[in-house]
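Risk register update: the risk of archive-format incompatibility is retired. Evidence:
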Amino acid sequence: MDERLLTERLVGYDTSKSEGLRAAGGFVKGWLESHGIDASERDHDGLPVLLATIGSDAPGAPTVILHGHLDVVPAHDEQFTPTRDGDRLYGRGTYDMKGGLSAMLCAVRDCAAEIRDRGEATPMSAVRVHLVVVPDEESEQVDRRSTDALVKAGVLHGDFAITGEPTELHIGVQAKGVLAVRLAVHGVSAHGSTPWLGDNAALKAFDVFRRIETLPFSRQSSDLYDRPSINLSRIRGGDAFNMVPDRCEITVDIRFVPGQDPKEILRQIRAIPDVEVLKVLERAPAVVSRSNPFVVALRDAVATTGEGAGMAVGRDGASDAFAFLEAGIPAVEFGPSGNGHHGPEEWVSVASLARYRSALVEFLRSVPAAVAGAPDGPHGGG
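Archived output:
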C-alpha cells in the first residue's frame, strides 16, 4: 500500500467524530505493526494517540519527531469517499492532513525496512525517530490538546520536530501568533419599533470589528509577513426580536506576526469605547532559525526530489508545532501540495505525496552528518 492508497483508506474514516477516530487509529496501529513497527496507544480524553519509535537506542543519538494528526473538520458525507482527477486526490483530509500523514507513515516504514536490511551500513541506524499520531489537532479545546500534554509529560522529546501540515513542500519556519479575544459591546435597549431611542449593540459590534481592523497593530509587518490576520469568527446578541439589543458578544481571531506584542494589541482594543474584554486566548508566534542544521538538512533533502520546493516560509495558521517550540524543541511545518483544506473541494497532489515521502527518507538519512557538521551541536543556529 503506497501513500496514495493509504490516503484513500484514511479518508474513508469520518474522523471528525470520535467513533471514526477510534476506528482510524486502530487501522493505523495495525498497519504499522503489520510492517514490523511496534506501536503503542495512549488514551487522551477518550481518543487514541499512537506512538512508535524506530532507529538508534544509543544515548545521545539525534532524535527527530514526526508528528501528524488523524482528525479533520466536519464535512458532507460524500467528502469521505475519495475521488481522483488526474494528479488531484479529492476528499476531506486529503490535504489537511491525511495525505501528509500517509506519506509520513510510508516514510517511517521505508526507514525501518532499510535499518532491518542494512543495519549499521545505513546512516539511518544512527538516528532515533519518534512517530506520533494525534486525534485532536483541529479541536477548539486548544488548552487540552494531546500534543501539549505529551510534550509537557516528557513522553515526546527530541532535537527536532516536523509536523506534517500542508506547506506546498516548503518549510514553515515561522507561524503567526494567536490572540483570540471575546469582547462584549455595550449599547442601550429600546423597543424594536423605536430603534432611534436605543443604541444597538449588534450594529456597534460590527463597527468595533471594523475599528479593530484599522488599529495601528494591523499595519505592522515582519520579514515573512506583510500584516497580521484579523477575522470576526463569532457574533451573538439580542434577547428578543422586538428589542434593540443592549449587549453583543463577538470573538475576534487575530494572528499576529513575530515581533508584535499581544499586550499592546489588547491595549489598543481596550481603548475602543463601550468595549469590554471578556476572555483572551494567546499563543506565541513560532520561529525557528533558517540556519538550524536540521532545517538546512531538510531543505537539501527536499531539493533532491525536484525543483520548486524547500524554501523557508511563514505560515498564517497555528499548529501543534508550538507545543514543541514551547518546550525548546525546534519544530517546523512541512507537508505536501494541494488546496481547499476545510472547504468543499479539498485536494492533495498525488505527485507531491511521493516527493514528500522521498524527502523525509532522504532527510533522516542525512541527519547524522548534518548534526556532526553543526558547530554548536544539533541546535546550532537555533
